[in-house]
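My current task is to audit a protein record that another person submitted. I have pasted the whole thing underneath without changing anything:
***
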Amino acid sequence: MLFGRGKKIQEKEGKTVLILDIESGSVGSALARLGPDGSLKLLGEFRKHMPIRPHRGAESLAAETRELLQEAMVRMSELAARLRNGGNPSMGVVSNISTFMSPPWGKPNLANGTPDFVPHMQEVLLQEASPYFDAPAQFFTHAGAAAQGMRALTPYEDKYLLCLVTHEITELVLVHNGVVAGHATIPHGMNLPLRTLKTHGGLSDAEARSALHLRHPEGPLGSSSEHYAKEFKSAAKELFDAYAPDRVWVVSPAGEYFARALSHRHLSELFPQGGVVRALRPAQIHKHLGSPGGQDLFLVLDALYLRYTQ
């Protein structure tokens, strides 16, 4: 069933946007309500993770991403139906689909001034959305959206590094006056310590995710943390040479772990005048939402981007 009616009425009262956040190990989705007065509400959010495997090739990553997209469409279409039947039909009418892609699916191309997307994944998204939503689709890089979304949280910071840690890849985004001024990637993310916890502790996926929030980078995790810090230093050096930021914001479900990893002694030479590494926490962004929830940092930054640009 296609959900595309009542759009003229909806635009006067605000609009409901389907947000999809596609990264290297999960797919997040949400319905966001953007009011004509600039208000923002998340009407519901959902994220599904891929199983943590020892290795994952490009083909299996694409296939598993498609499966997660299918589930996200079903969940969000069910939520839209409940909203339409709940006394305010326009709340459940999706006006557009805003898709935010992280590497390997999408990244900024500063040389060309336009983002790079994997056409195959764009086609997959359109195919999976068409049975459920009669709405146009837009594509954005998560790096660019996060840089804009952070402006609401850091209005007085004109230069800093965003460290966006997804499952298989970390994006380093140099932000200058709210725009992406530099970009690099690290081929490691949350799955680096998660695989270590599963291998050395015999934990399930859920247990490993929970433990990562509680444990300090010591023992087996210490080796993972040191390796991550070295990779970060190598990738960030050129970005730091260009703008020399003194603050790093870590955005990840395991932000505290990675913030501690980046306080490693190997990084001191990146901050000759001293620096600060902080993990973004849900409590820091809740005041920007007119609704409870908002535990998924990536989805909230996506919504904030839409709030300030559309």
About this structure: The radius of gyration is 19 Å.
